[in-house]
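Exercise 7. Given the encoded structure of a 245-residue chain, write a plausible sequence.
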C-alpha cells in the first residue's frame, strides 16, 4: 500500500497559525526504485535528503502554539515539495556535489507520476488547512547546513525569509535582532522569494501573512535543541500575533 505523502498534527486546533515542514523526512517510498535512490545510507542522512531537525522543532512548536502542522512524508530527493511544478530543480539529479543515481534518467512520465503521488497531494492538503479560516498565518520551518561543499561557513543561527509581504516577518526580525545570544539573517542563507514555492503558492498568492524560518542544523540535531528553539519561536510568534490582533 502506498504511504500517505503527508502527515498532519493538531489538525483541529483553531490557531491562526499554520506550520509547514516541507522537508520533514528522508523517506524514499518503496515504489521509487524499491525505496532506494542509489545513495549510500550516510548520504541519506545529510541535508541533501531532508531538513535535519526541522520536523522536531515543528512538532514542539505546533504543541506550544496549539496550531496545526503539516509534514511531508517523502525525501526532497524524490520530488521537492518546496518547488513549483515547472522548477528545473523539482527532481534533483545532482545536489551539493552528490549525484542522485535513481534520478539521473527521470523522464517526463516519471516526473508526472511523482507529482501525482506526492507533490500534488501534499499541496492540496496544505491548502485545505490554510483555507480553514480566512485569517491564516503561514509559518514554514526549514533548516540549513552550516556549510555547503566548498563554500564558506554560514554564521547565522536563524534566518527569516520573506518577499514583499512583511506583516509577520518584519515583527519577527525586529524581535530576533534584540536576542543578544543569536545571529539573525534577513533573507539568509537564501533569497526570500522563489516563484512557485510553498510560500508563494499558499501565502503570497492568497494574501496570507507569512514567514519562512531557517534554523542552522547543528543547533537542532537533538531534542533539547529542538525544544529550546521551539520555545523561543513560540514566544516570538505569540508576541507578533498579539501585535497583529
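Solution.
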Amino acid at each position: 500500500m502506498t504511504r500517505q505523502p503527508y502527515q498532519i498534527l493538531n489538525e483541529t486546533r483553531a490557531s491562526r497559525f499554520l506550520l509547514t515542514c516541507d522537508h520533514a523526512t528522508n523517506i524514499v517510498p518503496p515504489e521509487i526504485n524499491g525505496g532506494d535512490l542509489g545513495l549510500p545510507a550516510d548520504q541519506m542522512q545529510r541535508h541533501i535528503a531532508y531538513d535535519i531537525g526541522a520536523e522536531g522543532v515543528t512538532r514542539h512548536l505546533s504543541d506550544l502554539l496549539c496550531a496545526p502542522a503539516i509534514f511531508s512524508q517523502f525525501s526532497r530527493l524524490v520530488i521537492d515539495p518546496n518547488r513549483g511544478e515547472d522548477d528545473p530543480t523539482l527532481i534533483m539529479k545532482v545536489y551539493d556535489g552528490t549525484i542522485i543515481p535513481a534520478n539521473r534518467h527521470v523522464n517526463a512520465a516519471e516526473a508526472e507520476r511523482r507529482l501525482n503521488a506526492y507533490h500534488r497531494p501534499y499541496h492540496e492538503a496544505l491548502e485545505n488547512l490554510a483555507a480553514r479560516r480566512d485569517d491564516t498565518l503561514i509559518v514554514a520551518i526549514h533548516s540549513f547546513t552550516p556549510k555547503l561543499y566548498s563554500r564558506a561557513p554560514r554564521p547565522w543561527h536563524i534566518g527569516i525569509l520573506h518577499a514583499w509581504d512583511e506583516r509577520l516577518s518584519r515583527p519577527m526580525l525586529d524581535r530576533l535582532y534584540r536576542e543578544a545570544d543569536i545571529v539573525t539573517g534577513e533573507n539568509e542563507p537564501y533569497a526570500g522569494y522563489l516563484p512557485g514555492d510553498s510560500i508563494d503558492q499558499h501565502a503570497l498568492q492568497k494574501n496570507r501573512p507569512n514567514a519562512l524560518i531557517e534554523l542552522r542544523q547543528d543547533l537542532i540535531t537533538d531534542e533539547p535543541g529542538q525544544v529550546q528553539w521551539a520555545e523561543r519561536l513560540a514566544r516570538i510568534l505569540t508576541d507578533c500575533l498579539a501585535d497583529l490582533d
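Remark. The first strand starts at residue 6 and ends at 9. Students should compare their own answers with the one above.
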